[in-house]
Amino acid sequence: xxxxxxxxxxxxxxxxxxxxxxxxxxxxxxxxxxxxxxxxxxxxxxxxxxxxxxxxxxxxxxxxxxxxxxxxxxxxxxxxxxxxxxxxxxxxxxxxxxxxxxxxxxxxxxxxxxxxxxxxxxxxxxxxxxxxxxxxxxxxxxxxxxxxxxxxxxxxxxxxxxxxxxxxxxxxxxxxxxxxxxxxxxxxxxxxxxxxxxxxxxxxxxxxxxxxxxxxxxxxxxxxxxxxxxxxxxxxxxxxxxxxxxxxxxxxxxxxxxxxxxxxxxxxxxxxxxxxxxxxxxxxxxxxxxxxxxxxxxxxxxxxxxxxxxxxxxxxxxxxxxxxxxxxxxxxxxxxxxxxxxxxxxxxxxxxxxxxxxxxxxxxxxxxxxxxxxxxxxxxxxxxxxxxxxxxxxxxxxxxxxxxxxxxxxxxxxxxxxxxxxxxxxxxxxxxxxxxxxxxxxxxxxxxxxxxxxxxxxxxxxxxxxxxxxxxxxxxxxxxxxxxxxxxxxxxxxxxxxxxxxxxxxxxxxxxxxxxxxxxxxxxxxxxxxxxxxxxxxxxxxxxxxxxxxxxxxxxxxxxxxxxxxxxxxxxxxxxxxxxxxxxxxxxxxxxxxxxxxxxxxxxxxxxxxxxxxxxxxxxxxxxxxxxxxxxxxxxxxxxxxxxxxxxxxxxxxxxxxxxxxxxxxxxxxxxxxxxxxxxxxxxxxxxxxxxxxxxxxxxxxxxxxxxxxxxxxxxxxxxxxxxxxxxxxxxxxxxxxxxxxxxxxxxxxxxxxxxxxxxxxxxxxxxxxxxxxxxxxxxxxxxxxxxxxxxxxxxxxxxxxxxxxxxxxxxxxxx
Length: 816
Hints:
Layout: H1 2-41, H2 45-58, H3 63-75, H4 79-92, H5 97-110, H6 113-126, H7 131-148, H8 151-167, H9 172-184, H10 188-201, H11 206-218, H12 222-235, H13 240-252, H14 256-265, H15 275-288, H16 290-302, H17 308-320, H18 324-336, H19 342-357, H20 361-374, H21 379-391, H22 395-408, H23 413-425, H24 429-442, H25 447-459, H26 463-476, H27 481-493, H28 497-508, H29 515-529, H30 533-545, H31 551-563, H32 567-580, H33 585-597, H34 601-614, H35 619-630, H36 636-649, H37 654-667, H38 670-683, H39 688-701, H40 705-715, H41 724-736, H42 740-753, H43 758-770, H44 774-785, H45 795-809
Helix pairs in contact: 1-2, 1-3, 2-3, 3-4, 4-5, 5-6, 5-7, 6-7, 7-8, 7-9, 8-9, 9-10, 10-11, 11-12, 12-13, 13-14, 14-15, 15-16, 16-17, 17-18, 17-19, 18-19, 19-20, 20-21, 21-22, 21-23, 22-23, 23-24, 24-25, 25-26, 25-27, 26-27, 27-28, 27-29, 28-29, 29-30, 29-31, 30-31, 31-32, 31-33, ...
């Protein structure tokens, strides 16, 4: 009895203690919240946020602290952080109307239209008829419809925007919808009028000025484009990308002298800001060569410029000219007497780039850490460090660094491009896409950033948005070959032959040496796409006969013959090319390739060996010889020996190492293959094919936790891919890690593309087993085993037979 009373007393005391602790925690949380509000009122946001974080440690569901935290982050422009806090608020309190409105507004502001659409819709349920929310939802509906090329939805949402604009004449969102719709309809006069109206509401809106420029360019009004660019340079004098856009436009018009004059006009002798002078030097390097840039720097320094930045820039160009040791020595000499300053930090970053390029990674990283120790926000140092972290698969840390850099440099396209690379490696394609889109805007539609974003859109079959992105950039840089060629390819994909022809004609009139072969390739693709084989060959042969078509045109003729089963014609044409130029090694290689493709393995082998007798460093010939020999299943060892001989001649060839790994894999030496893939991955971890093969072998051959964890890190970039081999790799790793729902999604897609591969079907079958879908598992085991020989003893085949027998013994039937 006494013992029971004692236990009761202890239990009651513990319960009372917990109540006191809870009350005390809530009281402490409230004190931190009140302190945070006081800091907010005093304008000390950083300390306020510390107090709010203290609140969450004591009371993670404190509604008003969460709201105050979100509002504070939003107030200082940190939308990503604000979004995360509002999202947490709405998750904890689904009825929080203010949180829903904030999420809708931030989504619209950031161009995240699906988020804007969702939360505007949720908020409208609680406040139907709210015009501001209707404007957000309408803009989101329009943007989503435009991306999907849904004509009906575009018409309806633009109509609603016009109706709403009558009641909300100051809504910039609605003005943007109307402007975009007018541009889409090529109603240029009305679009210009609408932009003028919107600019009265937002006179500093760069996107509106860019749209106006785009319309003037579409109208062919070069004077208006030039005047508009000059106006934007003056209006946004803190934005260097505006001046860069004007220079690019001058270059596209062939007005190099005018571009140089503009850049020189911005250089003020003796001014503390060296960037204008450095921009001029970079321009001279790109248009007149590195020697011209060095001469300009020599002139500047001879006139009395003493900044070490000029010496460092000069060393950079000397480095580019191939005088690497001299350049590095000069940079080190500058730093020997340099005092800590921004100029010194810039020099250290420049030297770090040189050291990294020459293989001294340790020295490069040490210099970057020195810079960041002096200035933790140095954008160039942060970019270098983030790039190395991405290559080392430390993506989380890289993203954190880049976000910090972006907060201080929101118009730095380089930061946004690196963020896209980090998100790509992390397998987050949505944020990758968003970052590339922002990079296009930040660079003012520069060709490099535009091309990168357009290629992503095209790879996702979003051809209409990709076309729009390229056209917008071409209006500022008309005639740019790097943009015209992918635009032509998009039109070929869309089978829009008239527009493809227009692009080909535009390429033909460009002065760029790369334009003519690009035009020829595009015209041949147009004819081939129209299944006009004879015309395609006639066109290409005409170019060759007239001396206007190089090796590419000749190869295109051969490909067309082979694609149409005209092997005899292909052989005859290849032989005629060699007869005309018997000493041309490229044509002899082409002849050998045609023979291999048409089944004349002995003839192909003879030609490849002849080329290698003259030059053992021809990697392409070694690879082609090995493939030709391997076409005979009985000569596997001979083909392998060729690769070993090749590696003795060219030991650093990544392509040959890759081939060696493939042979080892087929022989069952998986550890040897993994070792080679590891070496290749260290040399180039950005290559998704290397990443896929390494991750796949680690996951399928090794079962220890460290190997599986490493495979998962490497394979993250494969998540959501539309490539069946990548889907299989990521799916099987997800299976190995116990993520069966993720695994089945990827593996079902992989089987659609690789259904003839028994191992892919085995992977799906094993996943079905884990999910309890036994009948489906049995079906996949049957499909896998139907695709292997009875003598096949590979481990996965043995496992499939065992699992099949077990399921059948338990009465499972396909279709149950």
